[in-house]
């Protein structure tokens, strides 16, 4: 099958379009003919080798972390899906590879595609929506009336997180550039801070939750926004000891992550704030709940651009500009 592969880790390196063996179907898997995929900053970080310590892939590697397509075969133990089903998923982190014609995915990580979305729209959803769900619903346990700051509200995670937080009944603030103010307001943001004009830490106070996807400076400034007992959740690092333990990392990696997060954990503790790092996980059941919200009109995808399959490298380059509104998708079929 055709696929875009990494032969070696290289910062900014191009993916190679070549032939890759069709993946093996395990007894709990579904084989999906890929109609669309989407591009995430995670793809560039994997290509650059930033995750090789915690995600030890065997090279050459087919890249890609989001998929929408049609089931063509199912494993012996699979009962919830059948050939012909339109589905979408974020494959498990050890079984990525959606920049290709086919992928085998554990059925537990798959959900039926929302009936009101195209394949391209559906492919834009899984990774970012699961990230938002696991941060706001699972980790923060966000409640009606609480106040949440979502950084980078015009990005992939941000556009979905704003909508999910509003559905949960929260008061939502976000940070964006001037050009994206109207977009995030249309998604439901109550307070919009233009980071080119204002410093969010001087404008916002007394928040219950901050969802951070930016760098160290923004992460530390976010502490000033939170009230005691608040929760600072970061999807951009630094990873903490809990993350290391949950993923079964050895003693050395646990100590590395303890050191990496020591500063922000200490500063958070002084203020009575809980810090945690979130690396989202594949989850078909949660994705099914997100499907219901999409079909009910509570969440809609935001797509910046669509690229044909052969332009996957250009799509990856575009995501790396940092100027994407919502998501970039790839039409595979």
From TrEMBL:
Residues 12-330 form the Enoyl reductase (ER) domain. Its EC number is 1.-.-.-. One of its GO terms (molecular function) is oxidoreductase activity. It comes from Rhizobium brockwellii. InterPro entries: ADH-like_N (IPR013154), ER (IPR020843), GroES-like_sf (IPR011032), NAD(P)-bd_dom_sf (IPR036291), Quin_OxRdtase/zeta-crystal_CS (IPR002364), YIM1/Zinc_Alcohol_DH_Fams (IPR050700). This is NADP-dependent oxidoreductase. Pfam families: ADH_N, ADH_zinc_N_2. It comes from the Bacteria.
């Amino acid at each position: 099958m055709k696929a875009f592969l990494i032969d070696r880790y290289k910062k900014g390196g191009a993916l190679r379009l070549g032939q890759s063996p069709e993946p093996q179907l395990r007894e709990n898997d579904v084989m999906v003919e890929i109609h669309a995929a989407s591009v995430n900053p995670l793809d560039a970080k994997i290509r650059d080798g930033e995750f090789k310590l915690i995600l030890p892939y065997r090279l050459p590697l087919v890249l890609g972390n989001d998929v929408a397509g049609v089931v063509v075969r199912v494993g012996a133990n699979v009962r919830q899906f059948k050939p012909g089903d339109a589905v979408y998923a974020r494959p498990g982190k050890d079984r990525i590879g959606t920049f290709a014609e086919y992928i085998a995915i554990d059925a537990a990580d798959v959900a039926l595609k929302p009936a009101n979305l195209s394949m391209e729209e559906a492919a834009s959803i899984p990774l970012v929506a699961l990230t938002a769900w696991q941060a706001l619903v699972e980790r923060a346990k966000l409640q009606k009336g609480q106040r949440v700051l979502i950084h980078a509200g015009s990005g992939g995670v941000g556009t979905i997180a704003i909508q999910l937080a509003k559905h949960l009944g929260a008061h939502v603030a976000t940070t964006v550039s001037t050009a994206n103010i109207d977009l995030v307001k249309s998604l439901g943001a109550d307070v919009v801070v233009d980071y080119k004009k204002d410093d969010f830490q001087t404008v916002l106070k007394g928040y219950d939750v901050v969802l951070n996807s930016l760098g160290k400076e923004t992460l530390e400034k976010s502490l000033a926004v939170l009230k005691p007992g608040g929760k600072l959740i970061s999807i951009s690092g630094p990873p903490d000891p809990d993350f290391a333990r949950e993923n079964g990392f050895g003693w050395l990696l646990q100590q590395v992550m303890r050191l990496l997060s020591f500063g922000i954990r200490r500063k958070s503790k002084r203020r009575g704030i809980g810090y945690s790092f979130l690396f989202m996980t594949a989850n078909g059941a949660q994705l099914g709940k997100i499907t219901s919200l999409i079909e009910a009109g509570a969440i809609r995808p935001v797509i910046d651009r669509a690229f044909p399959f052969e332009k996957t490298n250009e799509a990856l380059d575009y995501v790396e500009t940092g100027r994407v509104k919502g998501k970039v998708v790839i039409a595979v079929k």
